[in-house]
Amino acid sequence: MDATAMEGAQPPLMVSSGFLPAATLLESLILVSDDVASIEKAPFLQRKNISAMMRRISLLSSLFEEIQEQVQKQPLPPSSVLCLTELYSVIRRAKILIESSVQGSLLWNLVQTESISNQFYTLVKEMARALDILPLSLLDLSADTKEQVELLHKQATRAQLYVDHVEAQTRDHLIRAAVTNSEGSQKSKGFVDLVRVRESLSSIGVNSPEQIAQEVSKLEAEAEKQAGTGGLVVVSNINSLISLISILKTSVEENSTAHVDLKKRKVPTSNRQDQSFSSFMAVSVPDEYRCPISLDLMNDPVIVASGHTYDRNSIAQWINSGHHTCPKSGQRLIHMALIPNYALRSLIQQWCQENMIPTASEVERSSSKRRSSETAVDHISVTKAAADAVKMTAEFLVGRLATGSRDIQRQAAYELRLLAKTGMDNRSIIAEAGAIPFLVTLLGSPDSRIQENAVTALLNLSIHENNKMLIMAAGAIDSIVEVLQSGNTMEAKENAAATIFSLSIIGEHKAIIGAHPRVIPALVRFLGEGTAAGKRDAATALFNLALFNANRGKVILSGAVPLLIELLTDDKAGITDDALAVLSLLLGCAQGLEEIRRSRDLVPLLIDLLRFGSSRGKENAITLLLGLCKDGGEEVAPRLLMNPYSIPSLQRLTADGSLKARRKADALLRILNRCCF
């Protein structure tokens, strides 16, 4: 129902002060995109994920540059700023992830291949969700850029998690070799195939003794970092990797043989090896427990003014370096206080205990006592960043609906209309912001665009089950039917009919809406006067209302039957199946049966539909014919028998039709058979 384009788009509103200024935001986006593009070192790991992410960011960079030229002439719509803010967060985290994959320890990244692949996948999906709310029709973009962004959006939406199975196999071999090397038994002997280990390391770019030494240095740094986050198990396993490649380094330097006999080291049993291997792989820190800046397990989670949670050390370094914005959302921080997130800290401690990982507090207690606890605060999840941004935008736009000029109301209604298209969470947040009563009021606006945007926004909001009840409680039916009857644009009328259909999905609403004296007559009138799309909206709304028995008589009295029969042959309207479905319902009451029987043109039309109609159409056509022939339909049966196509069509339906159609066709054939004797 909703149109993505808006003719004569009005000047966009200024955005909420909670976001960075558009010019600053775009400059930051271009800079961080350029930073990603400047990463020249070819990756040995995550090649596909990294190249795909860099290509996506490169395409977005062209978009940012074009929008930057536009923003110098006029402000951006709030939904555009919301999209760009989310994209900034995604690209900044992608930059950190790519740099870590390229510059960090190759062995450690290999061990975490599934986790890193999942982080790339999560970022792509966040990118797709951000692009969901980008109003391309409101932005003055070149055709090429618009086409590229639309393609990028589709590809990101369809993207699947990709884990390189070769990397996973290489990782598994190296870990098993490390376990074999580190867990010894004086009662048994074992061998580490250093030739294969060397081949595995070579495949990820570790070849010479110098490169092995660099890898050892990076692993040692990683072990030191993990000592306060990942725990002793992770540190122990990193040390196992260091030991393995150190032996390889010595072997390479001394030109040792391909296999080294580790006589003084015990060979673990398969059970012990599998157990150690499993414990090594099991320690995968959940994303919600990682700091968005460092991507490490949070040691001391704190909440900043924007509502996002970070590790204290990471966010303190960010603020101390002169930044006064939230790294994740780009929102300016109104204060620099760091509030302990005790709820999240408790969850992290519980996770550490379940995984037998010593927490940071336990490590610190071994050397000194911790400070006394500060006052607890409510838990704010790090995953609600997008919801906070939508809430801020929705509240801003609702304020404009309430107090703005006509131009501002027009644009605010349009922005809410777009925002309500992008998901159930957004629809709930917009309703919670108090938008529905203001949108209902604007249905009576003399401004055609305000009215159209308001009714379409209500239609989009009504998709959410709870919002249906809120719209009904706001007394919207009077205003919606007024738009249906005398709306300023045809699109407003179409969306009013569609809104009635959406609201009537709830059973109790069928009775309430049907009891309104103007609703059903207005829908029937629109069935005859509307556009093809409008007629379909009216027919589906009438069908929904007619499911409630008491409404069927009102539909018939409003003159729907002749119009519905006429629509069976209206190829332009293209709603044959919808019209048949309504007629089948109306046949269930005495008034409907009598009214339908009066038509002399219906029977041959139904026979044609048995021959050429859709599966659904054939089912409804046979339902109508059977109903017309039963209970006093003596006149209809002879007319059927006189038509040369009726019996062959019914016989074909008994063989090829759906279960319901076969049963009814068989019943109708028995009735016709009796009429022959």
Automatic annotation (TrEMBL):
<dbReference type="GO" id="GO:0016567">
    <property type="term" value="P:protein ubiquitination"/>
</dbReference>
<keyword id="KW-0833">Ubl conjugation pathway</keyword>
<dbReference type="Pfam" id="PF04564">
    <property type="entry name" value="U-box"/>
</dbReference>
<dbReference type="InterPro" id="IPR000225">
    <property type="entry name" value="Armadillo"/>
</dbReference>
<dbReference type="InterPro" id="IPR036537">
    <property type="entry name" value="Adaptor_Cbl_N_dom_sf"/>
</dbReference>
<dbReference type="InterPro" id="IPR045210">
    <property type="entry name" value="RING-Ubox_PUB"/>
</dbReference>
<dbReference type="InterPro" id="IPR057623">
    <property type="entry name" value="PUB12-19-like_N"/>
</dbReference>
<protein>
    <recommendedName>
        <fullName>RING-type E3 ubiquitin transferase</fullName>
        <ecNumber>2.3.2.27</ecNumber>
    </recommendedName>
</protein>
<dbReference type="InterPro" id="IPR003613">
    <property type="entry name" value="Ubox_domain"/>
</dbReference>
<keyword id="KW-0677">Repeat</keyword>
<dbReference type="InterPro" id="IPR013083">
    <property type="entry name" value="Znf_RING/FYVE/PHD"/>
</dbReference>
<dbReference type="GO" id="GO:0061630">
    <property type="term" value="F:ubiquitin protein ligase activity"/>
</dbReference>
<dbReference type="InterPro" id="IPR058678">
    <property type="entry name" value="ARM_PUB"/>
</dbReference>
<feature type="domain" description="U-box">
    <location>
        <begin position="284"/>
        <end position="358"/>
    </location>
</feature>
<comment type="pathway">
    <text>Protein modification; protein ubiquitination.</text>
</comment>
<dbReference type="InterPro" id="IPR011989">
    <property type="entry name" value="ARM-like"/>
</dbReference>
<keyword id="KW-0808">Transferase</keyword>
<dbReference type="GO" id="GO:0007166">
    <property type="term" value="P:cell surface receptor signaling pathway"/>
</dbReference>
<feature type="repeat" description="ARM">
    <location>
        <begin position="434"/>
        <end position="476"/>
    </location>
</feature>
<dbReference type="InterPro" id="IPR016024">
    <property type="entry name" value="ARM-type_fold"/>
</dbReference>
<dbReference type="Pfam" id="PF25598">
    <property type="entry name" value="ARM_PUB"/>
</dbReference>
<dbReference type="Pfam" id="PF25368">
    <property type="entry name" value="PUB10_N"/>
</dbReference>
